Amino acid sequence: xxxxxxxxxxxxxxxxxxxxxxDETIQKHTLAVLVENVPGVLARVIGLFSGRGYNIDSLTVxxxxxxxxxxxxxxxxxxxxxxxxxxxxxxxxxxxxxxxxDLTVEAQSVxxxxxxxxxxxxxxxxIEALRLAEIFRANVVDSTLESFVFEVTxxxxxxxxxxxxxxxxxxxxxxxxxxxxLARGQG
Length: 187
Known about the structure:
Elements: E1 3-5, E2 25-36, H1 41-51, E3 56-65, E4 70-79, H2 81-92, E5 97-102, E6 109-120, H3 124-135, E7 139-143, E8 147-154, H4 156-166, E9 171-176, E10 180-183
Antiparallel strand pairs: 1-2, 2-4, 2-5, 3-4, 6-8, 6-9, 6-10, 7-8
Protein name: Acetolactate synthase small subunit
Domain ACT: 30-108
Family: Belongs to the acetolactate synthase small subunit family.
């Protein structure tokens, strides 16, 4: 897990600098939020983050129980332990929220993301893009004489690494789904 030290006297303006946090680290947290699937619940969750200056690194939402009208919102955010505890408490007070689980702290989890990459190129660059796609187990989902569309599934770090390698080879467009995560085991 990547963590960075907050410097005392930092000049950046964010919610993280409102109090002395010199002994705390900012870490990414993956939150699974089960909500009633009713109009406006996503707007309320997003409003909580934007209204308090919290950032969302990744957001995915889908209905997980059609009969029970339940959706799952998976949010990746960054903050000190104190900030993340505030976020969880505030999410829990939103009426349509049924449960908030911090998958980073409360359980080991499996995280995956899907990304589509459009890579244009010819000659050696085209051959190199195909070679790297094979190493990353990327699927070719579209191919023309000028470009490929690759589908990559994996951790966000894997997606980032593939993007960095494709940039010099002709990466033209990238679409990411955001993180989907589940706790490991029986939990």
